[in-house]
Every structure is written in structure tokens, then in C-alpha cells.
Amino acid sequence: MPLRRETRSTSRTSLPGNPLAPSAARRFARAALADWTSLGLLATCTFCRGDGGCPPGRHSTDLLAEDAVVIVSELVTNAVVHAGTTVELLCRLEDPEEGPAEEDHEPAALVLEVSDHHPGRAIQSDARGQAPSGTPEYGRGLELVAALAERWGITYRSGLKTVWARLPLEGRDAGAGQGAEPALRRGLRAAEILAPATRRTVRDDPEWAGRGALSFLAEASELLSGQLDEDLVAALAGQLLVPRLAEWCAVWLDGENAQTGAAPRLARVWHADESRIESLRAVLEQEPPRLPDPPRGGPVRVPWPGVRDPGDPAPGGGAGGVALACRLLANGRSLGTLMLGRPGQTGVPDEVTALIEDFARRVALAVGAARRYARQATISRVLQRGLLPSQVARIPRVASSLVYEPSDHGLAGGDFYDVFPCPPGDRWCFMLGDVQGSGPEAAVVTGLARPWLRLLAREGYRVGAVLDRLNRLLLDDATEAAESASPLVAPAVGQALPGVATAPSEGGQSRFLSLLYGELMPLPGTEGRIRCTLASAGHPLPLLLRPDGTVRTAADPQLLLGVVEKVAYESSTFDLEPGDTLLCVTDGVTERRSGARMLDDGDGLARALAGCVGLTAQGVAERIRRAVHEFAETPPEDDVALLVFQAE
Known about the structure:
Blueprint (H helix, E strand, L loop, with lengths): L3 E4 L2 E6 L5 H18 L21 H24 L3 E8 L14 E8 L26 H6 L2 E7 L2 E9 L11 H15 L11 H20 L4 H12 L6 E6 L11 E7 L5 H10 L13 E3 L18 E10 L2 E11 L6 H38 L10 E8 L9 E8 L4 E9 L4 H19 L4 H23 L27 E10 L7 E8 L5 E3 L5 E3 L18 E5 L4 E5 L1 H4 L2 E2 L2 E2 L5 H7 L6 H14 L9 E8 L1
Antiparallel strand pairs: 1-2, 2-3, 3-4, 4-6, 5-6, 7-8, 7-11, 9-10, 10-11, 12-23, 13-14, 14-15, 15-16, 16-19, 17-18, 17-20, 20-23, 21-22
Helix pairs in contact: 1-2, 1-13, 4-6, 5-8, 6-8, 8-9, 9-10
């Protein structure tokens, strides 16, 4: 859908009042934010690895877009269903720097407005923001909007009703730090609202356990298995149980290291009556359930929390009932406790008890999987902090921008990069490489190649000589690895070709590496001219964009590193004039697939770069990144890395 930009920071569109409007609104909101990012109105982070940064491949603008898309989808759905008229959608950036200096301004924010032409018909939703059962999809009312927005409201004009929501631009990163807790609360609340829940209470219907148990467990497995955060698993568990099988439930999670003796953490409390959640939590924090040792997985009857005598009221009012607690066991290890309460003094049918036990087993498996993922992601981030530079050098008179997105956020990627100065301080070196494979094997090669390149460059070797020596080092390392593994594997049939590296067999990893390596030297006495010398070893060729829109390749293709011993690598030298842009990418960009097509088929990358005339280095990087993601509906399957240099 084309953007209708009223100003640099405002975009508006009209949508028909039919079921296609919500999906069109979602696309429009994403396009508006991407457009503002390419114009530099929204800052984008490339890859944060330090404390308080975003996880690999996650951008603060991506998180803002996710919240914005959910909000416009809900508001447009309500407008279409309840008003049935044409819908107007407006996205606006509010920047306090644009107003008069003497006025008090709020922090920068994204404002979303959805208007319809039936002001007499209000949004209809119950207390939980959900439609009555048996009706079509009515959206989730304004509860979801209130959970994600800083504030929202409704404005009535003659013949027009506008629902608006304000999302602050600060503090939306999902990493550690001050912004983490609000982001987690928003995520948990949104998970509760989005999780499907029946409006019919079935805990007192023993026949349902036989009729609907398999469907319930299948639904639970599908929802829980896709979660990679243990707190979201706990939130979804409560939403699935209440009110289907219980009036309330609570989830305790044990620490990662049970030997420390730390008390379990009350991760989530949920009640069918939301006004009673806090009072129930206060009691449960003082009286956690006590289960027998050794741990077993079946539900155990425990005292109703806060009720010591049968006549005592339950927390928050009401009568007591039957409380059950169940260990969350996975692979013989206790990960926490699930507790639930059912009102009344009658017992729990055996069918329901068995269903609860099966459900608790699925919750435990999901918690275990989330913890394994968290450990793996933590190890990967620590590993990548060592393999990749903590920051890239700034080059005088050259603007630069970097995008780095590993395809699997739980594994170290095979792509690597670096920009660093070399003595005596008049040249800067850069590299963009891609190791065959990913994970630990690729990390080993990255851990060798980047320091070797830095050392060779600082020893004064020029571009071609650096690649020659790196090629020799990779071949020597591969030979040593093959020799150390030779007693453990069967002799290979036939003889290796002279001068060609032999790939280790039986699960070994070849040391093949594609690399783009170069130098940038600002020329003294010139008006912004930069001398560039570079070479490509089996790597996608860099592209040079001139201010007039012409694009050409800036290097010649040469052989991969680590393949052939006797090869002499050659470099190309040219000058970057003011306004020239150099784009360097890995094959995660050029070989991005959509069915049988690749992004670079028919010089597709060059055409995309030609459309970046007039953009900043950051704008070019974001435009190419967006082109990669929009080329196919599925996420990229390979690492995506690109470097942009622009002579100022």
C-alpha cells in the first residue's frame, strides 16, 4: 500500500470498511515506521551485545512496530465491525525537539489514530474486552490497547469518532536494564489477553474431561511449546487453566541451581476474578505449598491458602474449596510447582486429576525448553561478544552503518565483521566475512580469522598480501586438525589433490571462508576524497553507488580462502568521491530466497541500491535490510550482514 505522507513525520491512509481492512492497516503501520527509519527520523540499532542492549537480531524499531501493529489491528477491527464505515488510519511521530523551546514537552512518541464515521455507535466489549460467545471476531476491545500504550483515548467530532493511542519511543528495548521490566509486563499482559480462553467453566463438568481433554492438551502443547521465556509459559498456563479447570492458579519456578537453596519464585498468579489476584498473591507468597519428597508428578491435595478453619473466608472474599498442587517435573528434575483451586468442598474427579497431571507435564517441558534456550542464547551472546568487536571504528570524513542479524538467535552466526584503524593512523581496515556453516564450528574459524586479519594488517601487509597469508594460515590449521583426527577415522579412499585442502570426514568442519577485506585512506589536501583498496575472496562483490544513481561492482571475483594453497590474491583501488556509497553484504542478502528466486537474480541488489540515492548511510542500510525481509514472507534462513560506507 503506498504511503500518503502529509509531512515528514505523519502518514495517513483510508481503508474500506470490510474484513480486509485490519491486514491492510498492519502493512501500512509497518511501512510507515520503516519509511521513517530510512529517513533517519527513527533511530535503529544494528546489533547490541552489551548489558541493556537488545538481543541479537532484535531492533528497538522492530519492538515498537510489533506493538503498533497489534494496536492498529485491534482498533481497525473494532471500527469495521461496530461502525461499518470507511476507516481513516493516521500514524504520527511526536518529537519534542520540533516544538518551541519554552514549552514543556512530553518525550518523543508514536501516536496512532483510527477514525470511523459512526460516532453514535460505541465500541462494544465486556469487562475483559472480548466479544460475546457465538459472534464473529470482534477484536479484543480496548483492554489490549490499554496494556500496550502509555495512554489512549476517544475523541468525538461532528460525524467522526477517533480512537487514539500513544506509544513512547524510549524504553522499548527487550534487553536488560530499566526498560526490561515494563517491556516484560506489557508482554505478559498481552499474552494473557491474546491467549484463547473459553467463557464456559468446565471444571464441574466431569464428562468434558473425556470429550475435550485431547483438544485441550493439544491446544496447550501448541501454545506452550512455542514460548522461549519461562515467565510467558507461566502466564499462558494460568490463562489456559482458568476458568476451564480451576477458579485460580499459581505457578512457582525453582531457581536454575537448586543446590543454592534459594526459595522458589512465585512467577504467576491468575484468578477468574481479576480483582482478587493481588490478595491471593499476598497469601501465596507467605504460604507456598509444601509437597512431599521425593518429588512426584501427580496432583496432591493441599490446604486452601489463607484458610485455617473451615469457617474462615478465602483471600479476597468468598468460600474456600479444594486446592491441588503438582510438581513440574522434566527429565526427573523439579522445575517448580503448579497450584490450583476449585471452589466448593467436593472432591476432584479422577479424570480431571489425570488431565491436570498431563497439563503440568507439558508446562514443565515448556519451562525446561525455555531455560535451555535461555542458556544457549546467553552462551551464544557471550561467545559473539568475544568473536565480534565491541564497537566499530569511526573513519574521518566517512559515514558508516552496520546491520548484523544472525539467522538463529540461539547460535553464534557464521558471519563476522570489523572496522579498525591501522598505524600510523592514516588508514582504516574493514572486513566482512562468512564462514561455512554456523554454530561452534563456524565460531572456531571466526575466532581465528578476525584476530589474524587484525595482526596482519597492523604488521603493515597490504590487502592482497593479507589474504595470501590468511589463506595459508587456514590451510595449515585445517591440515593440523585433519592430522589430529586421523587416528580416529578410517583412511579415505583415493588421494587428495596436491595443494587442495581436504575436508575432515565424519562430522569434521572444513575451514572454508569467504571474505571481503579492504582499506580506506582519507586523502589529505582533497575535498572529501577517500582512497579505497579492497579484494573479494569468494564473497559477494561490493557495489558502488554514485550520486547520479549509477551502480557498479567495486572488485573482481576470486577464490574462497582455505581451498587452494598456491593462489595470489589481487586487490582493486579506486577513490570514493563525496556522496559515493559503498555497499558490502554477505550471501544472506544476495541469496535471500522466495521460492525459486533469489534477491540478487537479475541484479536485484543493484536495483535496490540504485533506489537509495539521497539517503544517508544509515538510511541505505535500513532500506537494504527491509528489502531482504520483504523479499519473502518467511524470515531469513541465513545470517544477514551488511556494511555501508559513504564519503561525506
